[in-house]
Amino acid sequence: MSILYHTDVTLRERVAECLKDDFKHNAIKTAQEVFYNKRAALVEEMGEGWEELRLHATEIRNHVTENLDYYVKMFAENAEANGYIMHYAPTDQDALAEVLDIFEKTNSQSTVKSKSMMTEEVGLNEVLEEAGYKVVETDCAECILQKAESKPSHIVVPALHFNRDAIRDIFTEKCGYEGTSVPEELTHFLRRYLRTEFLNADVGIRGCNFAVASTGSPTLITNEGNGRMVDSVPKVQIIFVGIDRIVPDLQSLDTMEALVPRSAVGSKMTAYFSVDSGPRRSDEVDGPVEAHIILMDNGRSRILKTDFEPMFRCMRCGACLNICPVYRHITGHGYGSIYPGPMGVVMTANMVGYDKIDTMTFACTLCGACAEHCPATIPLHDLIRQHRINIVDQGKNHSEEVPVFKLLKKMWSSVGFYKFAMGAGAPVMGLFTNDKGALDAKSTWMPVVKGWTSTRDFDGLSKDRFRTWFKNHKPLAAEAPVQKTEGTEGGGE
Amino acid sequence: MKIAFFPGCMVDMIYPEIGIAAVNVLERLGCDLVLPDEQVCCGQGLLNSGYRDYNIPVAKMVIDAYDRPEYDLFVSLTGSCMNAIINDYPIVFEKEPAYLERTKKLAERSYEFTDFIVNYLGKTDLGASFHDTVTFHKSCHVTRLLGIKEPPLKLLEAVEGLEYIEMEHADRCCGFGGTFSFKQPEISGEIVYEKCQTIIDTGANVVVGADVPCLMNIKGGLERMRSDGRLDRDIRVMHIAQILDARE
Ligand code: SF4
Question: pLDDT 10s digit of each residue in chain A, 493 long?
Fold first, then answer.
């Protein structure tokens, strides 16, 4: 499983690394701002229609989830009727074996790829390269990552962490580029460079945003047109489809299509949107001669009938990343998973299990902004918390923290103990507070509170309890609240 | 009509002045307040850290203290406690049907402080006066999770002399997140500094909120920025109850 990377260091170490990189930090913040503003404008333009659309999409996605067998069968049958060769891959290993088998049987040596999270998830590039095949990523950002041997920092704009100078250097070193760092010049170079790769590749590999059951059509959303080259030039085509990508018909596809680009990048539509229908027909001049669909589960169905089932609705739009206050500062690299941000925390924990995810579920303030922005109305923050609950229930929490929570439980469920602790705690804390009554930067040696005081001041316990004041206070007399009428503005006491 | 008042543990432990201001405001409005002695904490830090079972005895104590026939209404001064009780206790009490039922009933007669004044009592002008520039942090629990958007703003609008300046991304999280701020202090610090910067950028002299934990976090952030030179003036951090109690 290649979902996690940088597993040799802890979350906090990865975060510290990210925070040192000012360019990356600012690039993500700017991107969030741009996506946020563009999306907000489009959503406002739609008024109540936006909420209706979200709820409608939620219903459609739930309906498919509840009738998954039926729709998988329908999609597979109709895709076969379109001429696709179907392969079922319960696990990543099955998917990899199917791809290697296709390469061998078709005598293929090389592949051009359009961006696909699923192939990343299974680690396809590494496996193909190890087997001696040439793999070329053709999405601009993915191509940069491949040449730089770097990992995506965002699911929709994965090379956000490189500036134009860095990109020029990568192209110069890896592809013989001799130009400047002007973006137009870089993209023109890339276009020429990739053209040769498209023309020479044996296999085109890509993912699928939605798979339409009623027509057996895989669809693809791209912005650069490279997906169409991948689809139409090589003689063999392989499409990765997740079992959670299915929509019933073209009408429901339309609903998803209205939501995804708006949610992802704040656009009404993407530059390219393909609805495919099989290999080249006898009367057609281009397109693949042989087209394969790898329908992959790889742990997806494990969440059905669990608390995490809503995640099956995810459209991989990235809206939850674009609004997340944590993602904003730590980028995809902080999470160390190819699925970052709120959706990534939920999915990664589901897919790799609690033993391997470090403290990732704590990279979240539970603010709920993700859920509010998710086009599929997934209660992401609740699901993240559910992971935390499961981790504790299964005894996979850090044992050092248990006494602290035990003490809190005891204090908060016994008035006597609470009063005692407050009575004893206030004067002790008072020994360490500054003239404003707060623990400041000098208190970073203190256990537990040091986390807080390393970045902020911590107001100390008050000498007086509110409850004591309340018990002794004489209730104020009710006063008729002043109603604002001419001439009696303000008033009060 | 008796109102069972829930100040939240931070008010009792750290900020009694916020509780006092809120009591003044509500009593002037004619409310008959009760503070059950068994009120301590809603315990949300336990559930949110995954310790659901630890939250059970804490939540039971809250329900036993507040769900009593002699109390007509429940008013919470802090949005996040209110959210914990009405939205999260159903998860805590998953296997405690009797308490689950009582929580649901209590939720029906529960109000967050600003929502109670504006929507239950139908008041916005409380005769307060506060002559200064104010910005308002729209906390996640009040604004998003409880969906209370207008009431605090309406109340501020009616305060004599108060000049309101909206901050950028006023509804973006302040980075507190309960134990998150202890477990991931570096991320939490970045978020709160950014929040503080948006507050500083408004030029307002006072930042107000309706959620005590956020205020504690923002205050801690501002103080630190003040002491290490990133902030060169004093910015007061106040709960909306203190503004509504003000006659200055
Ligand atoms: S969880 Fe929702 S917002 Fe996040 S990627 Fe999936 S569909 Fe988009």
Answer: 478 987 788 888 999 988 888 888 888 899 899 999 999 999 999 999 999 999 999 999 999 999 999 999 999 999 999 999 999 999 999 999 999 999 999 999 999 999 899 999 999 999 999 999 999 999 999 999 999 999 888 888 889 889 899 999 999 999 999 999 999 999 999 999 999 999 999 999 999 999 999 999 999 999 898 999 999 999 999 999 999 999 999 999 999 999 999 999 999 988 999 999 999 999 998 899 999 999 999 999 999 999 999 999 999 999 999 999 999 999 889 999 999 999 999 999 999 999 988 889 999 999 999 999 999 999 999 999 999 999 999 999 888 888 888 888 888 888 888 787 777 777 777 777 777 777 777 777 766 677 778 787 878 788 888 989 999 998 888 886 544 444 433 333 3
- CA dist A381 and B200 (Å) reads 29
Token code pair at residue B239: 């709960």
All structural domains of chain B: 2-120 (3.40.50), 133-245 (3.40.50)
Nearest to A381 by CA among B27, B141, B102, B57: B141
Ligand 1 centroid – CA A373 distance (Å): 8
Q: Identify the burial level of B98 via C-beta atoms within 10 angstroms of its C-beta, where 0-12 means exposed, 13-18 middle and 19 or more buried.
A: exposed
Distance (Å) from the alpha carbon of A426 to chain B's nearest alpha carbon: 9
Q: Following DSSP, what letter does each residue of A261-300 receive, concatenated?
A: HHHHHS-SS-SEEEE---S--TT-SSS-SEEEEEEE-TTG
Q: What's the half-sphere exposure (Cβ side, CA atoms, 13 Å) at B62? A: 33
In chain B, residues 63-122 whose CB comes closer than 8 Å to chain A: none
Are A103 and A309 spatial neighbours (Cβ–Cβ below 8 Å)?
Answer: no
3-state DSSP call for residue B238?
strand
Torsion angle of the four alpha carbons A174, A175, A177, A182, in this order, in degrees rounded to the nearest 10: -80
Q: Torsion over CA of B162, B168, B171 and B174, rounded to 10 degrees?
A: -100
Query: Closest by alpha carbon to B46, among A398, A416, A364, A392?
Result: A392
- ipTM reported for the complex surpasses 0.90: yes
- Within A374-446, residue ranges assigned H as helices are 380-393, 402-412, 415-430
pTM summary value? 0.93
What are the tokens at B130? Answer: 């506060």
Chain A: nearest CA to B109, how far in angstroms? 22
Closest listed residue to residue B85, CA positions, set B59, B64, B67, B105: B59
Residue of A367, A433, A439, A452 for testing the chain B interface, max B β-carbons within 10 Å: A367
Q: Are A295 and A88 in contact (CB under 8 A)?
A: yes
Distance CA A177, CA A194 (A): 13
CB contact residues (below 8 A), chain A span 452-491, against chain B: 452, 454-462, 464-467, 469-471, 473, 475-479, 481-484, 489-491
CB B74 within 8 A of CB B110: yes
3-state secondary structure of B206: strand
Bridge partner residues of A221 (DSSP): A273
Angle between helices A183-200 and A164-175 (to 10 degrees): 40
Distance (Å, rounded) from C-alpha A102 to C-alpha A292?
A: 9
Q: Kindly list the structural domains of chain A, giving each domain's residue range(s) and its CATH number in brackets, ordered by start.
A: 71-303 (3.40.50.10420), 401-471 (no CATH)
Q: Yes or no: say if B134 and B206 are a contact pair by the CB < 8 Å rule.
A: yes
Instruction: Round to whole Å and give the CA distance between B39 and A307.
Output: 32
Q: Which of A284, A297, A296, A244 lies closest to A83 in space, CA to CA?
A: A284
Contacts for A49 with CB less than 8 Å, ≥ 6 apart: none
* Alpha-carbon gap, residue A457 to B224, rounded angstroms: 6
d(CA B142, CA B80): 7
Q: Residue type at A427? A: P
